[in-house]
């Protein structure tokens, strides 16, 4: 058997133990082939020691036990190690515990967040949208504050606040100078570029209260088309940049707000949208990658994509 399923966390730990770089670049198929080749090599080595290894599953069991014994002392795990070894299954269980959800529903939300990198929670007030968004952000970033930002949109929020703009600065002699200053999102983008192996999360509360085309500007394109091959030019500084893959945007909006009609026409391209409702659950696929899903605070069925 040349190929087999594999468990991400122990296999990545095994790569580190053997001093091999984890295949973090390239296609998912290429990464899978590299991992299978590594496990096959471990199997051959174990067979050479006359150990009873029948297939690649047995070889992975050996790696799992070896990794578990090394990872057992919790004090030996640094925050960096924990961040690098985030397991979606562990995240799902932790989220389910934190927000009192069934594990299946939490697993579905974690899967969507990691795959789509854009989540939109919508629903009436009091259904836990912001609470779930903040809990999910903390889990995805291993509770590291420098990897999480939270902003709340309002009618006067602008592109200059979110991306970049010209801002006054007091100089010597009580004079004023003007400089181009990065907004909260662009600051997080630059931080994410410096740490490409870590996830960064921006939580935008009440996203529908702002004029989205005015606030997002080029991000209406850049949030969907990411990476250095999809650069765009910033209007104030004139420099080119891009949105890296390791940023997740989680937004919330109040469906009782009358401005929701405009909101529903704007951010749907390439986003995953979750509707919070205390009594029902719905899930549907919209245009250009939008996913609408209900994530109620009371137990209900898991949405299907």
Give unreliable regions as ranges: 72-84, 278-305
Largest sheet entry: 7 strands, mixed
Strand order of the largest sheet: 2-5-8-1-9-11-10
Order of helices and strands: HHHHHHEHEHEEHEHHEEEHEEE
Shape: elongated
The CATH homologous superfamily of the largest domain is termed: P-loop containing nucleotide triphosphate hydrolases
What would CATH call the class of the largest domain? Alpha Beta
Rounded to an integer in angstroms, the radius of gyration calculated over CA atoms is 22 Å
Fraction of residues in H or I helices: 25-40%
Distance between the termini: 32 Å
Number of domain units? 2
How many H/I helices? Answer: 12
Just name the CATH architecture of the largest domain. Answer: 3-Layer(aba) Sandwich
Instruction: Please report the total strand number as a whole number.
Output: 11
CATH topology of the largest domain: Rossmann fold
> What's the pLDDT, averaged over the residues?
78
- The amount of beta strand, in percent, is 15-25%
Structural class: alpha/beta
């Amino acid at each position: 058997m040349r190929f087999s399923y594999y468990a991400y966390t122990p296999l990545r730990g095994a790569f580190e133990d053997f001093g091999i770089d984890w295949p973090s670049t390239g296609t998912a198929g290429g990464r899978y082939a590299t991992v299978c080749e590594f496990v096959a090599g471990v199997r051959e080595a174990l067979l050479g020691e006359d150990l009873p290894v029948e297939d690649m599953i047995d070889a992975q069991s050996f790696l799992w036990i070896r990794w578990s014994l090394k990872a057992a002392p919790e004090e030996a795990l640094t925050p960096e190690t924990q961040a690098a070894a985030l397991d979606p299954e562990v995240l799902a269980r932790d989220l389910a515990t934190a927000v009192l959800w069934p594990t299946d529903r939490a697993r579905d939300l974690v899967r969507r967040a990691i795959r789509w990198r854009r989540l939109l929670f919508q629903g009436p007030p009091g259904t836990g949208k912001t609470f779930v968004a903040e809990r999910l952000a903390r889990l995805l970033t291993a509770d590291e504050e420098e990897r999480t930002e939270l902003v709340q949109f309002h009618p006067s929020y602008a592109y200059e606040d979110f991306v970049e703009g010209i801002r006054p600065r007091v100089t010597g002699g009580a004079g004023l100078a003007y400089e181009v200053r990065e907004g909260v999102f662009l600051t997080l983008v630059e931080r994410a570029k410096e740490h490409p192996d870590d996830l960064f999360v921006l939580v935008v509360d009440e996203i529908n209260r702002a004029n989205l085309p005015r606030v997002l500007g080029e991000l209406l394109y850049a949030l969907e088309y990411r990476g250095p091959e999809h650069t765009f030019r910033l209007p104030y500084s004139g420099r080119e940049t891009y949105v890296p893959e390791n940023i997740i945007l989680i937004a919330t909006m109040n469906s009782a707000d009358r401005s929701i009609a405009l909101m529903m026409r704007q951010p749907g391209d390439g986003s995953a949208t979750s509707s919070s409702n205390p009594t029902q659950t719905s899930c549907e696929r919209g245009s250009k990658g939008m996913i609408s899903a209900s994530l109620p605070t009371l137990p209900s069925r898991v949405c299907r994509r």
